[in-house]
Structures are given as C-alpha cells and as structure tokens.
Q: What sequence folds into this?
C-alpha cells in the first residue's frame, strides 16, 4: 500500500493538494475546498502527535473489528462518518489551509516512521508507524478524489 513516507508518493500527493482551488467542485459530501483542507490538517495533526484525541466508545467497540478493512489497499468509501472533532463547518481561507496542509504533510513525511505518533487513533486504537503513513495517504487520497484531483 502507498504511504506518505515514500518520496514519490509524497510528491504526488502534494502536487494534487496544490491543484485545489476555490473553483474545485466536490463529487460528494458537504465540505467546500477550504473546509476539506482544514479537515485534512486536523487529521494530519493527530498523526504527527500535535493533537491527541481520546478513544471513542464506538471506536473501542468497533475500531479493532474494522481497522483491517480501512488498512486494505482499497480506497475509502464515499460518505463514511466523520468524528465530530474533524467536522469543519465554518468558512476557511483556502490558501491559508492549503499552505498549512502542505507544511503538516511535509513535516509528517520528513519525520519518517520513527516520528509518527505513538498515541492511539481515536477510533481504531493502536496503529504502527507504518500504518499511520498508509492511513494518512488513504485519507488525503480520499478527499482529493472527492474534489477530482
């Protein structure tokens, strides 16, 4: 599976992030482009360890059972539920959020596996550093596909 720790994958994903504009239309969901970028920043902050969320009750029950399906080499399905901490509803500034996401993605990539958080994922629980790299790639890919880039 692809991982953000791979240089070619990192370059491909950041190139796609740079293509997002105010005029980019979504194929599904409710977020505007800037909100999607902010949402991805929140998830990246969790992977880096800047943001630590408590385990949800549903995650403790269901997370271990469905973690394998999320870590398969298949894209995320459209309209999966989003943790309330990652729902962005306010207006955001696209270029500011784009630069923030590019900076966080670079930091995650350059830190390598050894610097991915050891804090459990809020829903899935423990992820290896390798799994954090894969999960972040899949999450970004999902939302970039949502906006056709």
A:
């Amino acid at each position: 599976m692809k991982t953000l720790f791979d240089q070619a994958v990192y370059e491909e994903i950041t190139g796609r992030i740079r293509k997002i504009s105010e005029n980019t239309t979504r194929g599904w969901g409710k977020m505007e482009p800037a909100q999607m970028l902010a949402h991805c920043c929140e998830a990246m902050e969790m992977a880096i360890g800047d943001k630590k969320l408590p385990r949800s009750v549903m995650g403790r029950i269901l997370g271990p059972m469905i973690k394998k399906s999320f870590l398969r080499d298949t894209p995320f399905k459209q309209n999966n539920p989003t943790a309330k901490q990652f729902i962005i509803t306010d207006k955001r500034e696209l270029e500011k959020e784009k630069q923030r996401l590019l900076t966080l993605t670079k930091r995650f990539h350059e830190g390598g596996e050894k610097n991915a958080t050891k804090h459990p994922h809020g829903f899935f629980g423990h992820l290896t550093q390798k799994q954090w790299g894969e999960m972040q790639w899949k999450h970004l890919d999902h939302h970039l596909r949502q906006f056709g880039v």
The chain has a mean pLDDT of 93.
